[in-house]
């Protein structure tokens, strides 16, 4: 079940291991029309830049081109919210969580009825992708 206690994030703890979860969420996002534009290995970056050890985490920059085009055609500045970040992270106990920016945040921050529609569709697709991973 997706945790929505933070209105700006969609989160879910999963039973799969870190590497399996990354593959599963990439596949689930692809099923929902999202491609992965960027991958940031947060732990490796922090180790390299700050010489600190942190639990593994990856930020996937996911984009659904059709939704992105619709949104940017309505409000060009919505591009500051793109791509949609989806995070897979592991805590110190080895538990794995998927988290994503709630696309409805875009619709709330930028008052445009058409953008609200796009954000709602993106929300449904991101939720479906997260729900597909166990």
UniProtKB/TrEMBL annotation:
Signal peptide: none annotated. It comes from Candidatus Magnetaquiglobus chichijimensis. Residues 40-103 form the DUF302 domain. This is DUF302 domain-containing protein.
């Amino acid at each position: 079940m997706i945790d929505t206690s933070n209105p700006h994030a969609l989160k879910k703890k999963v039973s799969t291991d870190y590497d399996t979860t990354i593959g599963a969420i990439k596949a689930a996002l692809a099923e929902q029309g999202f491609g992965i534009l960027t991958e940031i290995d947060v732990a490796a970056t922090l180790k390299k830049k700050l010489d600190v050890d942190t639990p593994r985490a990856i930020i996937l920059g996911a984009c659904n081109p059709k939704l992105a085009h619709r949104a940017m055609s309505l409000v060009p500045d919505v591009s500051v919210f793109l791509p949609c970040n989806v995070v897979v992270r592991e805590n110190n106990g080895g538990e794995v969580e998927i988290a994503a920016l709630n696309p409805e945040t875009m619709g709330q921050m930028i008052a445009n009825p058409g953008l609200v529609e796009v954000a709602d569709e993106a929300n449904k697709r991101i939720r479906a992708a997260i729900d597909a991973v166990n």
